[in-house]
Structures are given as C-alpha cells and as structure tokens.
C-alpha cells in the first residue's frame, strides 16, 4: 500500500525544482494512498491538492493548509466530512464517488465561508430524499452543488422546508448506519476466514488449505512431479482462483475496494515470482569460436555498409549509430581479420574480406548523420613506388617488349621528383609577354616553278604580297 513520503512529494514537484516547502500545487492521484499525513507540515503554501483515486478513509492532517483553495478527494473511501474547518481559503471541494452516508456531517463546512462549489454525487447520501434541499439550506455560502448552480428561489424554498427535511435525513442516516455496521461485520468475518485458509495452506503445502488426511485427498497423494508440472499446476490454480474472485458478487463498500486491491497486489507478486523462476541467465555471447574463428554478430541491430576502396587501398565500414548517442558509449576494436564495435554494451562484430592494419586504422563520427565511419588500410597489395630493375635483368628482355615496359614504367610511377616538375611562374607572366612593335616581315616571294608544264608567266598579273 502507498504512503505519503517526502520522496513521493519531491518526485511530483518537478515543476517547482523539487522544492516542497513552497509548493502551491501537488498531484498525488492513483498512488494507492490509505492515509493523509505529513502534507500539512511539509507543504504549508498549497493552493491545489489532487488526491483522487486512492484509498483514503478519513480526512485528516490538512487543517493547517490555510491557503488551500481546491481539494480533490474523489474516488476514495471517505465516510464522513470532517477536519476541514482550518482550511480557511477553501473554495472548491470534490468528494465524488465516496462512501459518505452521514449527510449531517456537512455542517462542519459552515465554517468555510469561502466555499462556493461542492461535489457529493456518487455517495450514498446523494440518494437520500431531500438531499439537495438539505445541503442548500445548510451551506448558504454555496453557489454550485454537483455542478448545478443554486438559484435564489431554490434556497428560499429549502429554508422554508428545512425542519421537515432535516428529520427525514436523520431517519435515513440511522437506517444507513445500521446497514453499514452489518456490512463491516460481514467483511471482517470474511477476512478472518481467508486468513485462516491461507494459514492452513502454509501448514500443508500442496493441499490448498485442506487436511492431507481427508478422504477427498487420498487420491491426490502421488509421487512428486517435475518442476515444470508444478509450475503449470500453480498457474492453472491461480487462474481458477482469479476467475472465482472476479465472478463472486460483492457489495460496493470500502472493504470491498481494499479486498480488490489486495487481490490484485497478491496476483502481481505471484506473477513476479513466476517470471523470476522462468528467467534464465543468458549465456555470454560467443564472438570467437574455440578454433579461433571470428563470427559475424549484430546485437545492437544497426544498419551498416562495408566498402572496398581500391583507390586508397582500404576497407571502409559505415555503421549507422544513433545520431544523438554519446560517443563515450561506443568502443571500437580493430583486428587484422575482423572489427568489433561495442554500442551500449552490445557487440557488433564483422569479419573483414582482407587483412588490414589495426595501427593505421581510424574511426570518426559523421557530423551530419552521426554514423561511425571506420577506415582500415589493407596489408597486402600496397601500391609502392616503381624501382628500376638491374642491368642484367634488362639484357634478358627482348627488344620487342621494351616499348611496353617503358609504358608500364610510366603508369606505375606514382611519385614525381619535385625538382623535375615545373610550375608556371605567375609573377612573370606579364613580363614575358612584353609589347613589342610589330614588324612587317617580308614573306618569301613565291617563284614559279618552271618545271610545271601548266605554268604560264603573265606579266600583267601583279605579284602576290
């Protein structure tokens, strides 16, 4: 069962930087709280307090909340309105779906002069004859009751009929209190019986609360079964008990709500025990076999691509690591035949198609995608500078293969001597092309070739310039 603790309040005070003494709004709904405590000491400045859908049976320890304006106690086990006189600033009170049968207890709210809204729907007292008229006449400061505005004529009529209505309400209250006392006795008797049955079941395990010497159980005395059979039997028995519990008719009382919660809590604990038994320790992931063979593993389930860069003679692994993951959660291990990347404790291992140099490898994160890019230079087939062969070797080659060897030498030579490589001198480009006066050079005269048989020398035709 839940209790109001300092840690619980701090967890629900994130909007106030987890500072509780200056809290003005606090929400503790659906926490299975059974008792109101500590709030009036730790949170004196509260203005709004949400406590709906819990198991609170009594209004207490809130009288020091002088600034409290709205109190929500809907869906609880409250049977009486009390201890709210000290909440001087209370304007709205929600007690929807509780177990308030003493309608006369609303007289304690007459001291809350600022109270304007009250919700009592879903309570046993809301079914009393004259309920609304009694509340309207008793709390004259109210403006709204159960979400409906109180008109002036309605209040005048309620005040006129108040003596008769008050007598009717008193009689109905007595009848309800007698019925409620019987329900409490029956609930306590059922609770004692359940506790006795559980005690018998603990004394005679395996016989479900019955005596092992009874006639009905003689057929059940057999050899012990396997562990799996016992688990299945317990599971089947638990499902039967659960079905019987939910099909059993019960009254809507505070005790039935507590019983339902205890049953659900017990069911949850049994389920946790079964799951713990079923849990098996996973064997460690095998990354390398006994004979030294590396395996391909992708536990993080990440997309990847492996590229063979022949131009730079290296292998590139692109691993799609999550974009916003911290790099400290990634560990890279490059080996000659495989690469291993550990992402948040989960291994990713890939066998490489060629042997690489671990010392020359590099790993970096992409600034745009967040991917991990690992560049691994290859060991074999490294392109080196061409070396001139010896003269004895050259003499054995045929003369016909010499041009091909020269072309091969030119292709394989990757580095060029910087002293033999000339770059254009940009600074002297203009000086080299100085403007010089253009001279008309006399072109050689074209003389006729006398040996040509078709040539005819005409003196009237001017010479060509």
TrEMBL record:
Gene3D superfamilies: Ribonuclease Inhibitor (3.80.10.10). Residues 297-390 form the CS domain. GO terms for biological process: epithelial cilium movement involved in determination of left/right asymmetry; flagellated sperm motility; inner dynein arm assembly; motile cilium assembly; outer dynein arm assembly; protein localization to motile cilium; reproductive system development. It comes from the Eukaryota. Residues 449-459 have a biased composition (Acidic residues). Residues 399-423 have a biased composition (Basic and acidic residues). Residues 389-398 have a biased composition (Polar residues). Keywords: Cell projection, Cilium, Coiled coil, Cytoplasm, Leucine-rich repeat, Repeat. Coiled coil: none annotated. It is found in: Cell projection, Cilium; Cytoplasm. Residues 188-213, 389-465 are annotated as: Disordered. The keyword Cytoplasm applies. GO terms for cellular component: cilium; cytoplasm; extracellular region. Belongs to the tilB family. Interacts (via CS domain) with ZMYND10 (via C-terminus). This is Leucine-rich repeat-containing protein 6. The lineage of its organism: Eukaryota, Metazoa, Chordata, Craniata, Vertebrata. The gene is DNAAF11.
């Amino acid at each position: 069962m839940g209790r109001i603790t300092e840690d619980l309040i701090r967890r629900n005070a994130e909007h106030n930087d987890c500072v509780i003494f200056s809290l003005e709004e606090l929400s503790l709904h659906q926490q299975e709280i059974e008792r109101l405590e500590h709030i009036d000491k730790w949170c004196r400045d509260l203005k709004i307090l949400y406590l709906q859908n819990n198991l609170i049976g009594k209004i207490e320890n809130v009288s020091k909340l002088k600034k409290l304006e709205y109190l929500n106690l809907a869906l609880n086990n409250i049977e009486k309105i009390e201890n709210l006189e000290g909440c001087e600033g209370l304007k709205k009170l929600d007690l929807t779906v509780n177990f308030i049968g003493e309608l006369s207890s609303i007289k304690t709210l007459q001291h809350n002069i600022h109270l304007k809204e009250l919700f009592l729907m879903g309570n046993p007292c809301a079914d009393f004859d004259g309920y609304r008229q009694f509340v309207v006449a008793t709390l004259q400061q109210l403006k709204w009751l159960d979400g409906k505005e109180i008109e002036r004529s309605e209040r005048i009529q309620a005040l006129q009929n108040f003596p008769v209505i008050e007598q009717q309400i008193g009689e109905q209250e007595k009848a309800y209190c007698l019925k409620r006392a019987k329900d409490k006795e029956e609930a306590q008797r059922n609770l004692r019986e359940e506790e006795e049955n559980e005690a018998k079941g603990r004394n005679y395990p395996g016989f479900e609360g019955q005596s092992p010497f009874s006639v009905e159980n003689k057929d059940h005395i057999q050899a012990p079964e396997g562990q799996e059979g016992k688990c299945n039997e317990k599971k089947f028995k638990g499902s039967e008990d659960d079905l019987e519990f939910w099909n059993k008719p019960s009254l809507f009382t505070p005790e039935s709500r507590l019983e339902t919660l205890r049953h659900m809590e017990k069911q949850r604990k049994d389920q946790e025990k079964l799951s713990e038994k079923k849990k098996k320790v996973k064997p460690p992931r095998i990354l390398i076999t006994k004979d030294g063979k590396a395996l391909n593993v992708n536990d993080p389930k990440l997309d990847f691509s492996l590229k063979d860069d022949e131009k730079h003679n290296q292998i590139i692994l692109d691993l799609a690591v999550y974009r916003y993951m911290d790099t400290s959660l990634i560990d890279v291990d490059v080996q000659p035949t495989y690469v291993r990347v550990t992402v948040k404790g989960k291994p990713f291992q890939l066998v490489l198609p060629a042997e690489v140099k671990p010392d020359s490898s590099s790993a970096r994160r992409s600034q745009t995608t967040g991917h991990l890019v690992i560049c691994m230079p290859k060991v074999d087939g490294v392109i080196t500078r061409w070396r001139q062969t010896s003269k004895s070797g050259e003499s054995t080659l045929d003369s016909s293969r010499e041009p091909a060897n020269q072309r091969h030498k030119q292709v394989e030579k990757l580095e060029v001597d910087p002293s033999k490589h000339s770059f254009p001198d940009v600074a002297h480009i203009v000086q080299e092309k100085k403007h010089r006066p253009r001279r008309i050079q006399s072109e050689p005269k074209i003389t006729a070739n006398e040996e040509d048989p078709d040539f005819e020398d005409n003196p009237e035709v001017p010479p060509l310039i």
